[in-house]
């Protein structure tokens, strides 16, 4: 994907165009997929959903320009930190409350809640692996 | 970090979109830098200084440099 042939204005227009394609394909696919599921066409809905995923990836891959600049990456980094912080608090407080309430025979959390909490644990495990991998390459 | 970007861009009679295109970032990035909400990378700071034909320290200065 070479950028050299594009003028500054073309780069800006191209970035806007491909970003719209990326997010538009996902948005349209999700809406269509949900509608088809609602209309009792679950398999066609699933196919449309995957078309949207492929469209998203294709737009990112085929774009002749960088779609996200350094500020976009910084915003994403800060948002990720905030997300992990929120998940961390929910995990620490939620797990402790669940154990305490169960030990006191006050309330036993449904299995679905524990499933969600274990899902959060998995998020931190994946983060730890990703962090280790990235830090070793930096 | 404080910066002189808005003044220099006005003097050069450029819009944020023009400057963004010139250094290949989004207009929102230029806007954030001018509002001192985002400190650019060294690479982008060099690009901006190069564009305005000045040194980085002519364009960006720490809060303490009052």
Could you characterize the architecture of this molecule?
- Chain A is mostly helical and 138 residues long.
- Chain A is 82% helix and 0% strand.
- Chain A starts with 7 loop residues before the first helix and ends with a helix.
- The longest helix of chain A is centred in the middle third of the chain and has 34 residues, at 70-103.
- In chain A, helix 1 packs antiparallel against helix 2 and helix 3 runs antiparallel to helix 4 (111-137).
- In chain B, helix 2 packs across helix 3 (27-34).
- The mean pLDDT of chain B is 93.
- Chain B contains five helices and two strands; from the N terminus they run E-H-H-H-H-H-E.
- Chain B has 66 residues and is mostly helical.
- Chain B is globular.
- The A-B interface holds A 3, 8-9, 11-12, 15, 66, 69-72, 74 and B 17-18, 20-22, 24-29, 32, 38, 40-41, 43-44.
Provide key terms for this protein:
heterodimer; A: 138 residues; mainly alpha; 4 helices; 0% strand; B: 66 residues; globular
